[in-house]
Amino acid sequence: MDFDEFREFGHASIEFIINYLSGIRERDVLPSVAPYTVINQLPKEIPEKPEHWREVLKDLEGIILPGLTHWQSPYFNAFYPSSSSAGSIVGELLIAGIGVLGFSWICSPACTELEVVVMDWLAKFLKLPEHFQHASDGPGGGVIQGSASEAVLVAVLAAREQAVISCKETHPELSESEVRGKLIAYSSDQSNSCIEKAGVLAAMPIKLLPADDDLILRGNTLRKAIEDDVAAGLIPVICIATLGTTGTCAYDDIDSLADVCQALNVWLHVDAAYAGGGFALEECTDLRRGLDRVDSLNFNLHKFMLVNFDCSAMWLRDANKVVDSFNVDRIYLKHKHEGQSQIPDFRHWQIPLGRRFRALKVWITFRTLGAEGLRSHVRKHIALAQQFEAFVRNDSRFEMVAPQALGLVCFRPRGDNEHTAQLLQRLMERKKIYMVKAEHAGRQFLRFAVCGMDAKPSDIEFAWTEIETQLTALLAEKSLPARKPSNVSELTQHFQMHLASDSGTHEKSQ
């Protein structure tokens, strides 16, 4: 493929993306394929002769897209958003085209230095403590990891190695294997599965502590667990707290957890993969309480900052603790400027050696949207979730399970778990919207997350109409009362006006 053909292919691909995204509401959010549908439509071997790119795009439309779940659809309301934007998409294209691997400064100085810049930009935008900036006098700073899973694993591994070093100094009579066999970590039973997986990969048990009835992990629970484990001869290493749990977007009590961790010399990491977007808003100031006392934290830009996956920001109070834990040098990795400046070699801050130029798409996204645009995006998600919550509360057949938090609403039809399961099954079969269910204290419930590149009040109305009409049909089949809710269109009009007023100067959300 020469450059002229490449240009045609590139232009056609951009048009393909635009047509896909602009028409995404017309597609069922869930695919209608059986297992092996895609496999059976494709050749069993690489084509012997090159094929024209038009044939590739034709098969992309005819074979691949029908087998996709459409994550950028506003009718994708499962899990949490995996957002994108025009700037981020172009940034991803440029990253691939430039094709650098920035594992050290000399491999591409701009790759490393741009990451330093955008991570400090983001720390300031989110109003994080100053010591997390590269520009601060201390040893802290930020790095872009691929995902929250990677960030959590980095924190767990670094904390583990620091604990081994410390324990061998204070207990020289113990062998290293004896020390490693006594290590233990902590998190909430509401935390993401990636935290438990990090314990498996680090060969260190992570004890999932019971959250309180409001689904929040607090310091008194952690203190009791640590004291019991110390009495049993174990060595506490790290607590992974969560701001924005997967099930209900609950916020662990960072202040009280920090009291315990500081007193007992335990690393405190905060997984703010979703809720970290709220740090930027004055009306969400409470979310930042206690962050000045944590050792590390992570936030997924692909959830709220309109930067496409994969892109997870991680900040460290003392990056040297990670570098000392992971540093493996070879002569082919050295360069003459190494150690002569404060510019990091980010290969020491992560699991892999190679590094993508993710900072480029972050930089382009931030410049093309601006801080104002980023804040407006988060506020829009909050307002749309409030619109959906109003629909729930105005229909007596449903009940809220937890307070609306950022862009998430947790609710259920009244009655036993069978109603929840059957309602979700009907919705999944129709494929018009996509939600997932969760469970707490024996009660199953539905999670409605505001997602998509450009969700609107009309999309929330569409989703709610789909939900309540399917419940009406379900209850009719069971010969149960099916009261119609309050006027949906009036509520939608109210939130459209609310969002329109938010496009200018923002007043504190109610």
UniProtKB/TrEMBL annotation:
SUPFAM superfamilies: PLP-dependent transferases
InterPro entries: Aromatic_deC, PyrdxlP-dep_de-COase, PyrdxlP-dep_Trfase, PyrdxlP-dep_Trfase_major, PyrdxlP-dep_Trfase_small, Pyridoxal-P_BS
Swiss-Prot/TrEMBL cofactor(s): pyridoxal 5'-phosphate
Keywords noted in UniProt: Lyase, Pyridoxal phosphate
Annotated GO CC locations: cytoplasm
UniProt GO MF annotations: aromatic-L-amino-acid decarboxylase activity; pyridoxal phosphate binding
PANTHER family named in the record: 3,4-DIHYDROXYPHENYLACETALDEHYDE SYNTHASE, GROUP II PYRIDOXAL-5-PHOSPHATE DECARBOXYLASE
Family that this chain belongs to: Belongs to the group II decarboxylase family.
Record's protein name: GA10357
Source species: Drosophila miranda (Fruit fly)
